[in-house]
Amino acid sequence: VPKKCQKAREHFGTVRTQLSSLKTKFPADQYYRFHEHWRFVLQRLVFLAAFVVYLETETLVTREAVAEILGIEADRERGFHLDIEDYLSGVLTLASELARLAVNSVTAGDYSRPLRISTFINELDSGFRLLNLKNDSLRKRYDGLKYDVKKIEEVVYDLSIRGLNKEATGGVGGEK
């Protein structure tokens, strides 16, 4: 995994070059006029950066750190920037991918990873519940997070039923 993450980080150099070129193609004060042209690409890039950081540290990457990885600004006032909604959409895509990773981890015999993913996703869900999301695409994506939480809970439950989480937690209920 560390080698794959390093390889992915190398590709972000190309992304930075391309985004740097994009910044010069339109007036700086008209970011939102053209935002739809790169919105989904930025959301996907946020997901990729968040996934790499998660695989390296098992933490959530900040918006500022993603902006730095992509070579763009975090603050709107500074020009071409990472919009907060694009960041949040990318993070929600990360949640969906982590739900898949939880299932695949069990298949590969890694029984502790789904437990760690479950903790991470539950904290992420708690954070999103604090937001007052409008009835837009971000709200719909957030609604999908509920299914990801449920999917991961089912994986953790199955591990518990089969007694496989003992290896991950050191015993029943974390006892040794």
From TrEMBL:
It is found in: Cytoplasm; Nucleus. It comes from the Eukaryota. Mg(2+) binds at residue 97. Its main location: cytoplasm. The keyword Hydrolase applies. GO terms for cellular component: cytoplasm; nucleus. GO terms for biological process: RNA metabolic process. Keywords: Cytoplasm, DNA-binding, Endonuclease, Hydrolase, Magnesium, Metal-binding, Nuclease, Nucleus, RNA-binding. GO terms for molecular function: endonuclease activity; hydrolase activity; metal ion binding; RNA binding; sequence-specific DNA binding; single-stranded DNA binding. InterPro entries: Translin, Translin_C, Translin_fam, Translin_N, Translin_sf. The keyword Nucleotide-binding does not apply. Ring-shaped heterooctamer of six TSN and two TSNAX subunits, DNA/RNA binding occurs inside the ring. Exhibits both single-stranded and double-stranded endoribonuclease activity. May act as an activator of RNA-induced silencing complex (RISC) by facilitating endonucleolytic cleavage of the siRNA passenger strand. Belongs to the translin family. This is Translin. It comes from Casuarius casuarius. The gene is Tsn.
